[in-house]
């Protein structure tokens, strides 16, 4: 995969986000014809590991349609083993050139981790992966949730490489690019970190 193809995928996402912010949505690939085209298989151009937060739907904030994105969603955009495996699937079987970890402002999972509220059920497993970002940003000037969410997105992008020889090799060989990004709920803008 050429660097241009990886950059083209990122440009396509960011151009879609610019349309979203400007309220000039094209809503591409959302027709009955597109549904029919996808019956034979999918060929998304990017994978997004994002938060399950209902305010952050990747297809909407990047103005994409059916079959364009391979979306992995989990509270706190945490790169658990299952999310890493899903990213591997996207790269190996769908030949995706770009994997983005997308954090966001006012993240509930980060907030719960910061305030030690993620203590019941399986929540501590997610919080354990978010907590290092909270510790790294503790006491830094600025909003503690947003600072931790940014660092956490970067850490999860790094974790994809660290936890997966498949993804690390693909990145080292230049077949994929793994990036971290941050979505601002108020402005609607996505920033590549």
Q: Can you walk through the features of this model?
A:
There is one protein chain. This protein has 193 residues and is α/β, with parallel strands linked by helices. It has one domain: 3-Layer(aba) Sandwich (Beta-carbonic Anhydrase, Chain A).
Comma- or semicolon-separated keywords:
193 residues; alpha/beta; Beta-carbonic Anhydrase, Chain A; 8 helices; globular
Ranges where pLDDT stays below 50 over 5 or more residues in a row are none
Main sheet attributes: strand count, strand direction, barrel closure: 5 strands, mixed
Strand order of the largest sheet: 2-1-3-4-5
Give the % helix.
Answer: 40-55%
CATH architecture level-2 label:
3-Layer(aba) Sandwich
Q: Assembly state here?
A: single chain
Average pLDDT number: 96
Summarize the structure.
The protein is 48% helix and 14% strand. The chain has 193 residues and is α/β, with parallel strands linked by helices.
Task: Outline the fold blueprint.
Layout: H1 3-21, H2 32-37, E1 46-50, H3 58-61, E2 69-73, H4 81-94, E3 98-104, H5 108-114, H6 123-137, H7 144-163, H8 165-172, E4 177-183, E5 190-192
Parallel strand pairs: 1-2, 1-3, 3-4
Antiparallel strand pairs: 4-5
Helix pairs in contact: 5-6, 6-7, 7-8
